[in-house]
Amino acid sequence: MESRSLVPHQADSFRLPIAHVRNVFRPHEVERKLAKLPGKDHENLRSTYERMLERGPERFQVKPSGVPDMAALYAELPNFADALDDLKRHVALSQDSRDGLEVTPMLLLGPPGIGKTHFARKLAELLGTGMNLVPMSSMTAGWLLSGASSQWKGAKPGKVFEALVEGQYANPVIVVDEIDKASADAQYDPLGALYGLLEHDTAQAFVDEFAEVSIDASQVIWVLTANDDRGIPEPILNRMNVFEIEPPSFEAARQIARNLYRSIRGEHGWGSRFQPEPTDAVLDLLAELAPREMRRALMTGFGNARLDQRDEIGVDDLPKPVSAKGRIGFLQ
């Protein structure tokens, strides 16, 4: 579907500018579908078509005018350097040209709690398009991605349709979280929609099963996460760049903890009551935790220190780690 140039807005130092407007569907196709609907039936489908025509087909498309300074991302996500390198290569390819930003779908493979979803969120912040999360672990069928037929009671469009039709951007970040936990059954493959969506050419004419009109999903930035690749079909693996994410080193984990401390302190009004930097002892203890657990531990630490009217978190303010069979977490 067509795109046209747009004068870029003044971007901040951490976002790519909007440089194009792109059509994500064809209004005449929607009008034809709407005209064929029976008079009193399919009210949800009728409302969907009317909403599409009301919003129109044009969506913003971010496009790099240069390679942004990503030093802060490398410092915050040291164990994602390979994935960040890949993103930087794609940005470099599309700068100073008429081409839009095209990123090969990426699979972040690694143990739980090391920051895979956090990486995707930071990527969305860099692009400025927002993030759409599709949790595959909660799915019982594939229509969360591709929509369900309007013949079914309670049917509605899928996440891809919603991101492109209801969103503002032609190239949003869509995160398919824990793809290895998708449970297929004999009737419907929950990963079936990905075969076409992860291929640039076929994604240009993606058809949501609810709306049954072509949507241009070719510009979507796909980030998939998994703990184990053994349950992922080979044809889907072959459509992605796979990055094995290792837990951060001890020193890298200390830096992550320091950055997180600063971030939490800066995001809250009460943060000014605390010291600008955490102690070395606190950093050493936090470095033993997965990045996912660090925030919870720090919030507990801030709260305990505040109750004691201190401006510094001590080791005793942090919750005690609990690791038992079938249970990982904190003893508050």
Q: Report the end-to-end length measured between terminal Cα atoms.
A: 54 Å
Q: Give the helix level as a range of percent.
A: 25-40%
| Rg value | 22 Å
H/I helix tally: 13
Largest sheet: 5 strands, parallel
Q: How would you sum up this structure, described in words?
A:
- Residues 5-14 and 324-332 have low confidence and may be disordered.
- The chain is 37% helix and 16% strand.
- Helix 1 (27-36) runs antiparallel to helix 2 (43-55) and helix 11 (250-267) crosses helix 13.
- The protein has helices at residues 27-36, 43-55, 71-76, 81-94, 116-127, 143-146, 159-166, 192-197, 200-203, 234-237, 250-267, 280-286, 291-307, and strands spanning 3-5, 18-23, 58-62, 106-109, 131-135, 173-177, 206-207, 214-215, 221-226, 241-244, 320-324, 327-331.
- The protein starts with a strand and ends with a strand.
- The strands form 4 sheets. The chain has a 5-stranded parallel β-sheet, with helices on both faces. A 3-stranded antiparallel β-sheet has the order 1-2-3, with no helix packed on it. The chain has a two-stranded antiparallel ribbon with strand order 7-8.
- It contains 13 helices and 12 strands.
- The protein is α/β, with parallel strands linked by helices.
- A hairpin with a 2-residue loop joins strand 11 and strand 12.
